[in-house]
Write a structure and sequence with these properties.
The chain has a 7-stranded parallel β-sheet with strand order 3-6-2-7-8-9-10, sandwiched between helices. A 3-stranded antiparallel β-sheet has the order 1-12-11. It has 14 helices and 16 strands. It is of the alpha/beta class and 548 residues long. It is globular, with a radius of gyration of 23 Å. The protein has helices at 19-26, 47-50, 57-63, 136-148, 159-202, 216-221, 227-241, 246-263, 299-308, 340-352, 370-382, 471-488, 494-503, 534-547; strands at 31-32, 73-79, 118-120, 123-124, 128-129, 324-330, 357-360, 386-390, 421-427, 448-451, 455-458, 465-468, 506-507, 511-515, 518-521, 530-531. The chain is 35% helix and 12% strand.
């Protein structure tokens, strides 16, 4: 299983060793540059009016509110660096007006120097950003191997030591399992790149010289004359379907190489360039440059578009609301796992600097110091800040194993240890098969679902827009709707917003195939059995607000 679940872009070219990865690959789409007419995505449509199971956002603007109504709401985006100069995002980026840009001083005395748009927790000297980071299991082995290597459970006495020992054993197992996976992924990406250039050579007339993307309609119209042409033409159609282009293929190979040489390597420690203690919350480093470097890190830009791409500029796509300002808090490397300390400090930064919503489009199945994350989430709850997280892109029940961070405490009684955390799964555009195969689910740990299949969004690098899938986008869309509610009804509490989003969703009774021989009602795949609906949520929000 690939462990970079937050990089939904990798569903495009991920090594396909099992059915789930083949299904993920199919969810990716083609890239394009849009400069004239704003794109209306299916995920903004209404089931009754348009026969598409979107969030009914178009209906909100048609019947309930105007585009310029509401007050500004800050949404903190805990993610990778963002292309803050993107034509469809530049007007939606949060600006800290209390800070004077570039003077090297902490003008607002919040502990961060020149934090104009947020903070880059992966930053180090000369405005650089850590590109590749270790997996969590590598960090655990580095910490615990000196203590437990060569021991067995019979020699462990203290309860805390036993917990660490079990974590150490799990880390060893993950490292062992990753060996074949790492090599297989790299070989796959290399072969895909070779195949792409073979297709370009065989069918140059099918390639856009500017974008490097194959034209699917032209490819579908051709009749191959030989078996070799047939094989290559099939590959062309696949490349066209998920929008492959040279830069993307090169990045995939580079990431595959880095996974072996750095990410899963005990001899590589990315934090040495920062020089901090990764277990000391007070040892905060970084800098204020949160701009995506060279277009390599795309995830943050993609999620940003799903939340708040400018609606009224007549270009590109439309986010949920122009009243949203995105505070960028960079913790995601290009490959590898984010650090628990960075996420916790990003949450605290967001709370202390005015965010009402925190979008954390990620989830992990192995975490080193989850207590650090949970304490930060509790801190956000104490300050009335809502956190929205992604369920994941692996077709499993995340109640067991739990996808971190998770809101539940005891699997026997279902008590929540925090009530300001929402976890969102992904839905598709076919109402008869509302959950894509690859989307994670869980009756206890997934609150509801939101659109996440074939979503057009903003992108870094040579392609300004990209169509892709993943619960990261479901999470972003939900954060946008939560902010829309608070923009118009600012007296709502974070807990009320959470309850409104859960209760106001659209119900589906569809039977879902969750494994080869196992089916389940969609109602049983999340806590609510519903799909996010902005129209219903706005109506309910007005009722709750008036009763406050």
């Amino acid at each position: 299983m690939f462990r970079n679940l937050h990089f939904v872009l990798m569903v495009l070219l991920v090594f396909s060793s099992c059915k789930e990865k083949v299904e993920q690959k199919k969810q990716a789409g083609k890239s394009l540059k849009m400069t004239a007419t704003a794109f209306h995505g299916w995920h903004h449509k209404d089931l009754k009016k348009d026969s598409l199971p979107g969030i009914s956002l178009d209906r909100v603007y048609e019947e309930l509110i105007t585009e310029d109504s509401g007050q500004e709401i800050i949404v903190a985006l805990i993610d990778s660096p963002v292309d803050i100069d993107h034509e469809d995002l530049k007007d939606q980026i949060y600006v800290n007006t209390k800070e004077i840009p570039g003077n090297g001083k902490d003008d607002d005395n919040n502990g961060y120097v020149d934090d104009i748009h947020g903070w880059n927790f992966l930053g180090y000297q000369d405005n650089k950003t850590i590109q590749f980071a270790n997996y969590d299991y590598i960090r655990v082995l580095r910490r615990l191997a000196p203590i437990f290597e060569g021991q067995d459970s019979s020699s462990i006495i203290e309860p805390d030591d036993k917990l660490d020992y079990e974590k150490y054993k799990k880390a060893l197992k993950l490292k062992e399992e990753d060996v074949a996976d790492i090599q297989g992924e790299l070989e796959y990406h290399i072969e895909e790149r070779k195949k792409y250039y073979a297709c370009v050579k065989a069918f140059p007339e099918l390639v856009d010289p500017k974008t490097g993307v194959f034209d699917k309609e032209k490819a579908d119209s051709l009749t191959p004359k030989t078996d070799t042409q047939k094989e290559l033409l099939t590959a062309v159609q696949d490349f066209a379907y998920y929008g492959a282009y040279p830069e993307l293929l090169d990045v995939s190979v580079a990431q595959g190489e880095a996974r072996s040489e750095k990410v899963a390597n005990l001899d590589y420690n990315e934090r040495l360039v920062i020089g901090d203690d990764i277990y000391d919350l007070d040892d905060v480093r970084g800098h204020g440059n949160i701009d995506a470097p060279q277009g390599r890190i795309t995830h943050g830009t993609q999620v940003a578009g799903s939340i708040a791409a400018t609606r009224n500029n007549e270009i590109g796509i439309k986010g949920v609301s122009d009243k949203i300002k995105l505070m960028v808090l960079s913790v995601f490397p290009e490959r590898g796992n984010e650090l628990d300390k960075d996420v916790a400090n990003a949450i605290r930064y967001a709370v202390d600097n005015g965010a009402r919503i925190i979008n954390y489009s990620h989830g992990r199945y192995f975490v080193d110091k989850e207590e650090i994350l949970m304490d930060a989430i509790k801190y956000a709850g104490e300050n009335d800040v809502l956190i929205i997280s992604a369920a994941g892109n692996t077709p499993i029940n995340i109640d067991i194993p739990e996808n971190s961070p998770h809101p539940k405490d005891n699997p026997n009684n279902g008590d929540e240890i925090v009530d300001n955390l929402i976890k969102v799964g992904a839905t598709g555009k076919n109402p008869d098969y509302i959950k894509p195969y690859w989307s994670s689910y869980g009756k206890r740990n997934v609150d509801f679902f939101a659109p996440g299949q074939r979503i057009m969004t903003t992108n870094s690098g040579s392609h300004s827009y990209f169509e892709l899938g993943g619960s990261s986008l479901s999470c972003g869309i939900t954060s946008g709707v939560a902010a829309l509610l608070l923009s118009h009804y600012p007296n709502l509490s974070s807990r009320q917003v959470k309850e409104i989003l859960i209760k106001s969703g659209e119900s589906f009774d569809t039977e879902i195939k969750i494994e080869d021989d196992i089916k389940s009602s969609f109602q049983d795949l999340s806590k609510s059995g519903k799909v996010l609906n902005a129209y219903n949520a706005m109506i309910m929000a007005e009722e709750v607000s008036n009763s406050n």
